[in-house]
Specification:
Structural class: alpha/beta
Oligomer: single chain
Order of helices and strands: HHHHHEHEHEHEHEHEEHHEEHEHEH
Number of domains: 2
Low-confidence stretches: none
CATH architecture of the largest domain: 3-Layer(aba) Sandwich
Bound molecules: pyridoxal-5'-phosphate
Strand order of the largest sheet: 1-7-6-5-4-2-3
Mean pLDDT: 96
Strand content: 5-15%
Length: about 450
Amino acid sequence: MNRRDEREIQQLLGPAFERLLEGFEQLPADETTPPGSARIPAVLAEVAERLHDNYPYAHPLYAGQMLKPPHPVARLAYALSMWINPNNHALDGSRASSPMEREAVADLAAMFGWPQHLGHLCSGGTMANLEALWVAGRLRPGKILLASEDAHYTHGRISEVLGIPFEPVPADDLGRMRLDALEAKLEAGHVGTVVATLGTTGYGSVDRLPQILELAGRHGARVHVDAAYGGYFGLSSRLGEEARAAFDRLTDVDSVVIDPHKHGLQPYGCGCVLFRDPAVGRIYRHDSPYTYFTSDDLHLGEISLECSRPGSSAVALWATHRLLPPTHGGEFAAGLDRCLQAAARLHGILAADDRYRTAPAPVLDILIWAPHCNDGERTSIRSQAIFDAAARKDLHLALLKVPAARARAWWPGLEIGDAPVTCLRSVLMKPEHLDWVDRIAALIGEAHDEAEAAS
Ligand SMILES: Cc1ncc(COP(=O)(O)O)c(C=O)c1O
């Protein structure tokens, strides 16, 4: 987005704020001014200066980590609601924003084909997975939790926090949970829950959910899906066959985590946990002698582990859904299609260039490649040098340590010892990336040649 548009967007807050104040005009005037008000402009200018020290996350030349700018409507709605500062724990603190949260979460449940559900927003994927696995542990006490070795690192740690025995399941060369290994663990017994990941953090791999559901079902295990990053891609019309089959079976899992603060255009922190069976609400049951007085309706604090939660997150998500509903065939889905196209196109350009070795084609919008060196050590050093050279050209990439066995399987010609190989990684999660792919590829080429010449 250009800077003029951005300035015009900032101006939209004023009239909306006036409209908000109209709702409270009947109150007697309160003449107090916040302490230090006169110095706010100076402090704000200082804040703006401090924030210069950042990578340009919102710009298409930021093509590194899983970071995506929130949509302007989300930022504005969040800022607007901060005058209220609603607390979505109880309806007492969030008369408007609690119902908005329920509506926004129902939109996400509908995306998975769930006519009924139990769910709420929370601070992000880690907290959302913690809740899902807490419920899973309560429903399968003493049983083992399985997740792929490529699953997000927090699953192992969450299971420690919850005291649930955890076992990683080996992944294949494409970063998917190995089904033979899963079956062997299920047959060994005592498995309570299998975590499938639809969109792994490192590679964007998609676990084969249809087969996982079948295997887990045969052994009476629950299936939880960590779709914190990948969850929205079910709306895309451009998924490959295997990924499509996985996303289509989200309807049948026990619980899902999806992060609106990743692909859902929201500011941090906005994660969401959803259970297919609303009856799991009984596990959350507790009494709070201080709250829950203003309404007999369910308060969101009665179905969430956290107590206070920002109602502004719900307001922002609700506003975003009003503008860009998360439905098949809409503008929002078209944006996801463009991210998939951008990743596939950049992968194609790099794969056709003999300066690089590319990992298998991206399933979602994460791609991995490395400079064409003779051995693993030199590849790692050169990847780092390209990463640094690209950053000097304002192109921001990411790095990934690929285990030696996986790199060997991808690139049989590469001499590798036991050490992981550092490769380049890019998450093309902005729809605009599609228009910038050629420029990004050209800058990668310049950075490559510069790093090669300097070596
Ligand atoms: C698949 C997956 N699960 C969980 C998480 C953790 O989410 P958060 O950083 O919002 O806590 C991430 C973060 O990248 C992720 O990619």
